[in-house]
Amino acid sequence: MRKTQKKQAGEFMELLARAHEAVGKAVSTGKNYIAMELLEQCQEGAIQLGELVEKAEGEGCGMIPLLEDYCELVYQIYEEVRQGQGASADRISEDLQQSLIKIEKYLRDNIKTRTEIVFLPYKASMWDSLESVWKAAEEDPDCDAYVIPIPYFDKNPDGSLREAHYEGDLYPEYVPVTDYNDYNFDARRPDMIYIHNPYDECNHVTSVHPFFYSKNLRNYTDKLIYIPYFVLGEIEPDNQAAIEGMKHFCFTPGTIYANQVVVQSEDMRQIYINEYIKAAKEVGLSGE
Question: Is the pTM here over 0.70, yes or no?
Answer without folding.
Answer: yes
